[in-house]
Amino acid sequence: MTSSNEFLQEWLTDTLTPSSEDDDDFENTLKSVVKKLNSHYWDTDSDTENVIVAGSYGRKTHTKRTSDHDVLFILPPTVKEQFDKRQNNIQSQLLTSVKDVIFERYPKTALHSDGQVVSIEMKKGTIELIPVFDRPDQKFDFPNTNAGGSWEVTNPNDEIEKAIAVSNQFQCYREIARLIRSWRSFQGIKLKGIVIDTLLCEFLEENSVYSFTYTLESVLIDFLTYLGEQSGSVYTMMGSGDLIDNDDQVFADEAKRYADELKDAENNEEKNQLYSQMFGKKFPGYNAAASETFIEDSYSMAIQYTVALDASIKQNGYRTSTLQRFLFSKRKIAKDLQLAFEAQISDDTPHNVKYLWKVRNVGSYAKSHSLERGEILRDKKVHVEPSSFSGNHFVEIYVVYQQNVIARNYIRVPIDAINGVTN
C-alpha cells in the first residue's frame, strides 16, 4: 500500500517541482527585455548582463505555478544622476522612462509602472522588473514612488547566496518551501515567500539532523509546528538581515492546526484526507467518494476573509459541550448526539453571502455502508448533523460572495460509537 509520505513525494515531484519547459516562457521573455534595456542603457546586445533574478525564482524555491517573477535590472549610475536633478516624484518618472523603453519592444503587451516595479504581462504570469543602481556596499538603490517618491535599499544577492548554501546542506529545503507555497496558495493564506524561506532556513539550521536523514512528511509536520509557534510580525530576512513585515499572522494558527491534526491522524487515509484539505482535490493520495463534489469546480477561489467554525454538541436537546473542546482534549464523541455546526464570519466580510457545507465521512464503516457522502449543500450559517457512526469525519464551510469563495474552513469530527463520551 502506498503511504501518505509517498503520495506527498508524488505531489511534490509531479505537480510542484518546475521543469525547464515550465520556465521557458519567463526566461525567453526576460532575455528579450534585458537585451532591449541593455541596448538602450548600456550600448550592448547582451541578454544576460546587468540583471538579477530575485524572489523565489532566484532562490529556486518557486513552484510550477509561480506567476510573478521579481527581476532587478541594474542601470548606469549616470541615469540616477540625471533623474536626481529633476523635480517632483523622480522615482515615478524613472519607472515611466524604463516602461517606455520596454514598450518599444513590446507595444502590444500590457505594461504597468507602479510602486517599485514595471510589470510586464506574459502568457503565464508577470515579470515585475525593478530598476536599480549599484551602491558601494554591494547593495542596490531602487525607486519607491509612494508618498512623493524616495530611494530604498535592497540586498537580494545575500538572500540568494544564503538560499543556495542552505539547499546544498539540506535537500529538503526546496521541497518543503514548495509544499508550504502550495498550501498557502490553495488556502489563501497571507505568507510572503521570503518569510517562508527565511523561517524554513532558521528551522533547518536548528535541526541539523534533517541534513542527512528525513522523510518529507516528518519535516513538513515539524515545520508546520515551527510555523505555529511564530508570534511576531516582523522578520529578519535570510542572508541580507533586512526586516520585513508579513502583515498577517493567521498563518501561524493554521499551521499549528494542520500540524496537530496530522500528528493525531490514525492512518494513511486520514493523513491523505488532511493533505487534500491543504493542497486540494488533486492530491494523489485522496480517494474521492462516489458522490463527492468539489467547491473549486463550481466557484472561483478568492480567499480574503476568515470564518471560524465550531459545533454545539447536544444530547436530548441539552447542550453538553463544544466540538473545539473535544478536539482540544483529544476526546471522541459518542454516538446519537446532535452537532450544530456554526460559521462565524469576520466583521469585514461583505453582506449577502451564502453558506455552503460539505460533510465527508471517513473510515471503514462509512466505506462499507456507502456513507462517505461529500456533496456540497447550501444551508444557513448553522448546519445540524447527528453523530451516527465511528470515524474521523470532516465538515467544511465555504462562504461565497458573487460566485467567489471568499472564506473557508474545516473541522474534524472524531466519533467513537463504543467508547465516545457526551461531554
How would you briefly describe this protein structure?
This protein has 13 helices and 18 strands. It is of the alpha+beta class.
Provide structural commentary.
- By secondary structure, the protein is of the alpha+beta class.
- It folds into 3 domains: 16-154, Beta Polymerase, domain 2 (2-Layer Sandwich), CATH 3.30.460.90; 159-255; 289-415, Sandwich (Immunoglobulin-like), CATH 2.60.40.
- Helices cover 37% and strands 26% of the residues.
- It has 13 helices and 18 strands.
- Strands 1, 2, 3, 4, 5, 6 and 7 form a 7-stranded mixed β-sheet that branches. The chain has a 5-stranded mixed β-sheet with strand order 10-18-17-14-15. A 4-stranded antiparallel β-sheet has the order 12-11-13-16.
- It is elongated.
- The two termini are 37 Å apart.
